[in-house]
Amino acid sequence: MGVIPNGVIKLDDRAKIILLLSTSICVFSTGKYIVVTAFTVILMLLSFLLGIGNKIFTAVLNYAFVSIIEYQLFPIMPEVLVANFNILIVTVIKLTPCYLAAQMLIQTTSIRMLMQALEKIKFPKALIIALVISMRYFPALKEERHHISDALKLRNIKGIKKIKFALMPLMVSASNTAEELSQAIIARGIDNPAKRTYEIQSSIQVIDVFVIGASFLAVLYLLIGNVLY
C-alpha cells in the first residue's frame, strides 16, 4: 500500500472489499472452469483499468500456464503424474482470481482508506485494529529481516550458522516491532470510542453500484445453482 496508482477508473474501497469476498465465495463454490476463467478475465481487465496491470501480469501468465497443463497435458500424461500435480494445479487456478481481487484492494487502497471503508460497512472495531496492526507489522518485520541479513553478510556468516545467528535477533525484533506498532497505533487514537473523521471522504459512484450489484448477483446465481443442481 504505497503510492496509489492513477488508473482509468476508480472504485470505492467498499466495492473492492465486496468484490474480493464475492470472488472468493464464487470461485470456491463452483467446480466449473469457465466460471473461474470468467472471474479471472474480468478481474484482469479491472486491474488494468485501475492502473495495476503490471502487478498482476505474472499471475495471469501463471494462470494461463497451469490451465494449459490442466486441460492440454493432463489428458495425455500418466495417471501417476496427474494425481501428484492435480491438487497443486487446481489450487493455483482457484486462487488466481482471489489473488487478483486482493491485489486490486491492496495496491489501490491506503490503510486509512481501508479503515474508513471497513468502518462504513460496520466491520468490528477490534478486527479493524488487528488488521491494521498486521498490515503495518509484516512490512516492518520484512525490513528488519533485511537488516539482519545485511549484518550477517558483513560478518561473513554463512550456512547453518547464518540460520542460527539470524533466528534469535529476528524473534526479538518481531516481539519489539509488535509492541512498538501497538503503542504507536494506540497513541494515534485508533481505539478512541468517538467517531473518527477522515480527510478524504469516499462515496459510492455508478461504477461502484454496478460492481457491487454484479458481485451479489454472481454469488446468488452460483449458490442457487448449487442448491438446485
From TrEMBL:
Superkingdom, taxonomy of origin: Bacteria
Membrane topology: Multi-pass membrane protein
Major location category of this protein: membrane
Keywords: Cell membrane, Membrane, Transmembrane, Transmembrane helix
Membrane-traversing stretches: 17-49, 56-74, 80-102, 123-140, 204-224
Cellular component annotations (GO), alphabetically ordered: plasma membrane
Pfam families named among the record's database cross-references: CbiQ
Localization per Swiss-Prot or TrEMBL: Membrane
UniProt protein name: Cobalt transport protein
Organism this protein belongs to: Streptococcus constellatus subsp. pharyngis SK1060 = CCUG 46377
Lineage: Bacteria, Bacillati, Bacillota, Bacilli, Lactobacillales
